[in-house]
Amino acid sequence: MTARKRYWLMKSEPDTFSIDSLRKVGTEPWNGVRNYQARNFMRDGMQIGDGILFYHSNCTVPGIVGIARVASAAYPDPTQFDRKSDYYDPKSRPEEPRWMLVDVAFERKLARTIALDEIKRHADALGEGFALTQRGNRLSVMPVTAAQWKHLLSLE
Q1: Rounded Cα gap, residues 12 and 19, in angstroms
Q2: Which residues of 13-23 are buried (b: 16+ CB within 10 A; e: fewer)?
Q3: What kind and span of H or E run contains 112?
Q4: pTM > 0.70: yes or no
Q5: From 3, 40, 52, 56, which residue has the greatest number of CB atoms within 10 Å?
């Protein structure tokens, strides 16, 4: 019996790492997540092959710009141990890492950006549980139901 495919939305600032950056490299570790809930989604929820909506945040037109997939099981984020990294965590130890990551693989760039403003207009169809349309939500990794995935991609 195989595990049920899950879906996620992962945010990145395009000037830091964009969908075009992912297209160039093919697969990339999703490092630098320093929120426990987002970490838990990667560590406990993500499985190889899960779908990812790649979202550009903190830019002129924030929105969903591409599709990727989870390409590895979760493993310790090496930046937590690197003193020169912006993501260094002095309380994390190799024998007890605090922060985990998964590798993300490029699937495709969307034909157009599905802008946050447009997504908000579909809040009722997406349901109350859709974290992106909830006030104050700043998670960089969040779950998406199969129905939400299908609805969002139908907007493309």
Answers
A1: 9
A2: ebeebbbeebe
A3: strand 103-115
A4: yes
A5: 52
